[in-house]
Amino acid sequence: MAQPNAYFKDEVTAISKKYDSLWDSSRETIVFTGSSSVRMWKTLDQDFPNHQVLNTGFGGSQTIDLLGYTKELIFTYRPKKVFIYEGDNDISSKKKSKEILTTFSELIETIKVNDSTTKVVIISPKPSISRWKYKGKYKRLNRKLKRFCEENDNLEFANVWDIMLERKQLKKDLFISDGLHMNEKGYQLWHSVIKDYID
């Protein structure tokens, strides 16, 4: 089991405090978690109004960081389904796809051991302007993640990569000024893919 990265402790504590009062334990729960592309999806609960959706994303995290905080960010809420967005910062930190996949495998195993009925959807690491130079590494990781999902029960792969491209070129109007994070238009595209995995 990965040790919790102390760097994220305050942010994780703030997320827990927020949902202490907002989370209704009597209702079915869907958790979205992972790095800042989830954290900055401010309209998540409005985009899926028929569900209790919690956003426990924490900015700058890598797969190993989520592994270290599964209890606080996932298990506490006993979700029937978990959407995970990780791998983006792993690639930017020069980790190889094999190493990232190994950590994903540990993460999924940890979730299944906690509750074997939990369904998990891995959201593909997305393309972006600022990290376009790594596109080959992203595509390789996404192929591995897709195969990994196909080989495991209760595990699905939501491909947001393709919809963010047009004729293999990145749609640059989906991003805010940093060239990494998405604007409202980008999240609308994500919603169009992810809504099919909610139920």
Automatic annotation (TrEMBL):
InterPro entries: Ester_Hydrolysis_Enzymes, SGNH_hydro, SGNH_hydro_sf. It comes from Cellulophaga baltica. Gene3D superfamilies: SGNH hydrolase. One of its GO terms (molecular function) is hydrolase activity, acting on ester bonds. This is Lysophospholipase L1. Residues 40-189 form the SGNH hydrolase-type esterase domain. It comes from the Bacteria.
